[in-house]
Amino acid sequence: MSLYRTCRKEVDKQGSGRLQKIRVAVGELSAIDPELLRFAWEATIQDPDAGCELEIDWKPAIQRCPKCEEIKPRGDQSWLMICPECGSPLRVEGGYELDLLEITFESESEDGETPA
Ligand SMILES: [Zn+2]
Fold first, then answer.
1. Quick check: is 41 in a domain?
2. Rounded to the nearest whole angstrom, what is the distance from the C-alpha of residue 30 to the centroid of ligand 1?
3. Residues in CB range of 98: below 8 A, 6 or more apart
4. 114 located within any domain
5. Domain count of the fold of the chain
6. What confidence tens digit (pLDDT) does each residue in 24-52 have?
7. Which domain holds residue 77?
8. What angle separates helix 34-44 from helix 2-13, to the nearest 10 degrees?
9. Is 92 among the domain residues?
10. How close is the Cα of 51 to the center of ligand 1, in Å?
11. Gap from CA of 58 to ligand 1 centroid (Å)
């Protein structure tokens, strides 16, 4: 899984260490199922990163009216195609994210030291 390789590379760039937690943004329209992502992550991480936590930042797509400049609320799974105020077709924005937001890791050089 390329996500893990990217994280691993980041840690190696900083020296070496153990991944503790990563945070990713997943968009509603990115065709990524958060549950599947979590499952794949658990299956992919290896020592010394076993147990690394995956935090998913869910990014819903939004609908904006180009005329009113307003974000129109919508119910679960339902899309308004037309602005209820002015009748303009709504634009869909966002929802395609798949971004690595944050990596938390423990530096290896600090391992093995006597805790203060
Ligand atoms: Zn409108």
1. yes
2. 26
3. 24, 25, 26, 27, 30, 32
4. no
5. 1
6. 999 999 989 999 999 999 999 998 999 99
7. 2-9+17-105
8. 60
9. yes
10. 48
11. 26
